[in-house]
Amino acid sequence: MAQPYAKKDDDHDDELEYSPFMGIEKGAVLQEARVFNDAQVDPRRCSQVITKLLYLLNQGESFTKVEATEVFFSVTKLFQSKDTGLRRMVYLIIKELSPSSDEVIIVTSSLMKDMNSKIDMYRANAIRVLCRIIDGTLLTQIERYLKQAIVDKNPVVSSAALVSGLHLLKTNPEIVKRWSNEVQEGIQSRSALVQFHALALLHQIRQNDRLAVSKLVGSLTRGSVRSPLAQCLLIRYTSQVIRDMSNHGQSGERPFYEFLESCLRHKAEMVILEAARAITELDGVTSRELTPAITVLQLFLSSPRPVLRFAAVRTLNKVAMTHPMAVTNCNIDMESLISDQNRSIATLAITTLLKTGNESSVERLMKQITNFMSDIADEFKIVVVEAIRSLCVKFPLKYRSLMTFLSNILREEGGFEYKRAIVDSIVTIIRDIPDAKESGLLHLCEFIEDCEFTYLSTQILHFLGIEGPNTSDPSKYIRYIYNRVHLENATVRAAAVSTLAKFGFMVESLKPRITILLKRCIYDSDDEVRDRATLFLSVLGGDGTVDTDKDSTEFLFGSLEVPLVNMETSLKNYDPSEEAFDINSVPREVKSQPLAEKKAQGKKPTGLGAPPAAPASGFDGYERLLSSIPEFAAFGKLFKSSSPVELTEAETEYAVNVVKHIFDNHVVFQYNCTNTIPEQLLERVNVIVDASEAEEFSELTSKALNSLPYDSPGQAFVAFEKPAGVPAVGKFSNTLTFVVKEVDPSTGEAEDDGVEDEYQLEDLEVVAADYMVKVSVSNFRNAWESMNEEDEHVDEYGLGQRESLGEAIKAVIDLLGMQPCEGTETVPSNARSHTCLLSGVYIGNVKVLVRAQFGMDSSKEIAMKLAVRAEDVSVAEAIHEIVANG
Amino acid sequence: MELPPKVKNILLLDSEGKRIAAKYYSGDWPTNTAKEAFEKAVFSKTQKTNARTEVEVTALENNIIVYKFVQDLHFFVTGGEEENELVLASLLLFDAVNLLLRGNADKREALDNLDLIFLCFDEIIDGGIVLETDANVIAEKAGINSIDPNAPLSEQTISQALATAREHLTRSLMK
Fold it and tell me: Region Disordered: which residues (chain A) (predicted)?
């Protein structure tokens, strides 16, 4: 504590600020604390010493057990003094010292006396202190007084008892639950805070009784709560009730929603905000329900109070993720917030605009953002960059201006995280939008010319090695890459050598030149660089027989097939012995993906669906995995892998999910199993599949998992044969069978004997959507018109009553498993009709485009006109069949 | 599930970001080092902003922080990201502290009356739960320090006398 001051002493002694705590030291203060033991208590002096003790504690100093006990005992003597000021300080220090239960005994009688004192302040504080330090047995002794205190006519006392009840409910619920009647009385209190605390406690007491909560909330929403804080609380409870009702399929939320809406007209802004936020967060909220909430938030946007503007723009930003059209009305107010003094507000405004903007406003927005970017901190810039990335995925046609923007900011000053966000965004755009590839790669090349971050340079070089050789003119990248070999540190030089080798291998015409460049690298000062250069030279020098070609491809482009984490664990467990380390023994469950891909996927907004390149990375992994298993290698090319479907509830003993791999003639189920019990080792793990409800499938083979240790996932496979090219559907029931062996937790060794057991999993279905791959087209109209108009199949369907258009559209998209294009999956807030554009590739590699027009009448009946164009007429018919049956 | 508004910490820092008083109610910052790091991050993030006329707000590490500066005192209240900003703003102590320090709220006065500041902290939040929001009530409850209820009226200062009178008045009105 004293050090900062002491240091300053040397520099400018005279300017030193005065502080009563200058040079304070724990030992000295503890000495001073002896004055508590004086026969004649000096209240002023004692208060000062307590303040010093509190100061020390507050500055992070800690007392040893002995010191704390000593202070505590001497402090208890101060109860003799009648000085109220001193008493207050005594209460504080007792709470801070948090005495152990055997010490507590000493003060309980004094505190209980204070609890029944005539002085309100004593009563209130004694309750708070006592409840903080006592245990269950003592609590029963003072329960009577606490109940009395709850209904005390002094609100301060009453609040103290209620708040203490809230804390005690965690440790002694059965006791606090007996106070319901008194607490109920508190809700009727005239004091705002008492009402708030009573409501909180009563709800907490009843929280597990859904009906009671709903009744409590129902009765209070009719208007007996006046305190704004209590009102906010009631709003939270109300939305919880609404959520519960819809989870249990009950109706009757209407009055509750109306209550929320009425709170939008409350006089306290705190309540209005709470209500608006509650409405926007309701599940499946309709645009009509949203409108009043959006309107009040829009008013807040132009408030002179920053807190209010921040709250409003933060809420609208969230709404924009799910209901972008509902927020567009606020765009003008939002744009004026870009120049807000408070940068948090400005950043939220920008990212909201990026979410709600339409294709035509992109350029104008980018202009505004450019001015804005120069004067905000990196962390805000990262948020903006991420928003721009999702915008680019949404409006692929606008990639040019977005890419220009990204490359400009890439050239400016910035920290590592910020630069990484930009590079990630450019990489995502290159993957998703083929047209953007060449310009994007050049931007990255320019960036590594002057990049101070080794990590980013190596990542970019690796990426260049994969994407560069496939461009129209690969030779133009060579100069950039070779420059790195001259100018960078060893890590980057090594990466550059690998990248050069990839170019040399992929582009025949460049091979001689690359060989020359690599030869220069064998004189490098670094071992790794020299080794790589020598290795690649010999690979490239090979005379090109098919066999070496394949090996070289594998070597240059194949990644390690096992995840590094698993590899590391296996290597650590490997005892050096006669037996060589077998890489096939390493579990292959993919926990982590290569870095750039993981980030690109992880941060991608879910609503935009998966653009083609992204799933390919997971797909590549699956393809490699399956082709490495001899039983499945002959199945041909993998058509599609579904996302994992959970077959167990969360937090069960064994967690199993399944990935459906579709081949032309076969279907393979990949069961990813995790053992979550540390005391068990599972062996011979297999899945028994009953396909009696899937007539067209016949089981071909299965591959059991030999051993499944705790927390190290493994896979079992079952393969089925099905008619070629036919989108067969069916339902499968699954049972997990295995042998359980007990594991001694201390040694980690398993017993020799195991017990056979089985575990019922949930059913699995193969549906029509499994035969459709999501593939987006950058320009739907062109693609649509390039297909033969005569092959178009049109039909109309009634979809029955739905809550909203959006819901109906989502259902159709899920049914077909196709990729929504051009952001058409989002419906404007008040639309009664909407057109959704979908694209995909059907089994047999048939390209399919769908234009679905939806309309809703006043009774929420939804009709759909579905126009399908496919390269094969029979597929267009099949699509209609799916919809007709779905 | 816990729904009542929860406060994670309240901080009072000086103009160099040093802690004058702080109270943490959540386990997010288990050690003093973690607490100091958080305070440093909060201070450097807000230092350049103008929070003198209006209460300002920002987000940091999934927390919402509302703050206001008075002279060389920097007041902060931190809550989770789901928290209502206006509720947090109502818990900023500067009004109560200003009352307690009789309008001379600055670092020196605050250190001289640190006992009052601690009492203020104690009166506004109890274990993370809002205890009282009215600055006048808080100042009264904390300020009782200097008033011995048994002392003759003549020994009280004018403002204390006013405070006592106001307290009596509110009581009688509430009955």
Answer: 592-614
Residues of A in contact with B10 (CB under 8 A): none
CA-to-CA distance for A728 and A768, rounded, in angstroms? Answer: 8
3-state SS assignment for residue B164:
helix
Element (H, E) at A335: helix A331-336
Put simply, the answer to whether A21 touches B111 (Cβ < 8 Å) is: yes
**Contact criterion met (CB < 8 Å) for B21 and A159:** no
Backbone dihedral angles phi then psi of residue A31, each to the nearest 5 degrees = -60, -50
Residue of A270, A318, A340 to mutate, interface with B, max B Cβ within 10 Å? A270
- Residues A325, A329, A334, A336: is their CA dihedral positive or negative? positive
CA–CA min distance B57, chain A (Å) = 6
Indicate yes or no: CB of B58 within 8 angstroms of CB of A4.
no
A9 SS3 class: helix
The residue among B90, B118, B95, B120 whose CA lies nearest residue B105 is: B95
Nearest to B108 among A18, A159, A314 (CB): A18
Residues of chain A in contact with residue B133, where contact means CB-CB under 8 angstroms, are: 193, 229
Which residue of B118, B138, B148, B164 is the best one to mutate when testing the A interface, meaning the one whose CB has the most A CBs within 10 A?
B118
Res A554: pLDDT: 60
What single-letter DSSP state applies at residue A328?
G
pLDDT tens, A661-685?
A: 888 888 888 888 888 887 888 888 8
Q: Does the A628-765 domain belong in CATH 3.40.50.150?
A: no
C-alpha–C-alpha distance, residues A532 and A98, integer Å: 63
Number of helical H runs and strand E runs in chain B: 7, 7
Distance CA(A589)–CA(A644), nearest Å, equals: 12
Q: Residue A697 above 90 pLDDT? A: no
Buried/exposed code over A37-57 (b: 16+ C-beta within 10 A; e: otherwise): eeeebebeebbbbbbbbbbbb
CA distance A62 to B162: 40
* Chain A residue numbers touching B4 (CB-CB < 8 A): 166, 200, 233
| pLDDT at position A691 over 90 | no
Confidence band (pLDDT; 50, 70, 90) for A728?
confident
Q: What is the pTM of this model?
A: 0.62
Nearest CA among B91, B98, B134 for reference residue B116: B98
Bridge pairing between strands B73-80 and B63-70: antiparallel
Could A311 and B86 be called an inter-chain contact, meaning their C-beta atoms sit closer than 8 Å? Answer: yes
Residues of B in contact with A243 (CB under 8 A): none
For residue A162, the surrounding DSSP H or E stretch is helix A155-171
Q: How many CB pairs under 8 A join A and B?
A: 149
pLDDT band at A616 (very low <50, low <70, confident <90, very high): very low
Contacts of B35 in chain A (CB under 8 A): 60
CB atoms within 10 A of CB A105: 11
CATH 3.40.50.1380 holds for A769-883: no
Average of per-residue pLDDT values in chain A: 81
CB contact under 8 A, B54 and A58: no
The verdict on A19 touching B (C-beta cutoff 8 Å) is yes
Q: In sequence order, what are the beta bridge partners of A688?
A: A735
User: Any idea which architecture A463-539 has in CATH?
Assistant: Alpha Horseshoe (1.25)
A85/B146 Cβ within 8 A: yes
| HSE-CB for A432 with a 13 A CA cutoff | 31
Determine the residue type at A226. Answer: R
Q: Where are the alpha helices (DSSP H) in A395-510?
A: 399-411, 416-432, 437-449, 454-467, 475-487, 490-506
Is A51 within 8 Å of B115 when comparing Cβ atoms?
Answer: yes
Long-range contacts of range A263-266, CB-CB < 8 Å, 24 or more positions apart? A263/A231, A263/A235, A264/A292, A264/A293, A264/A296, A266/A228, A266/A231
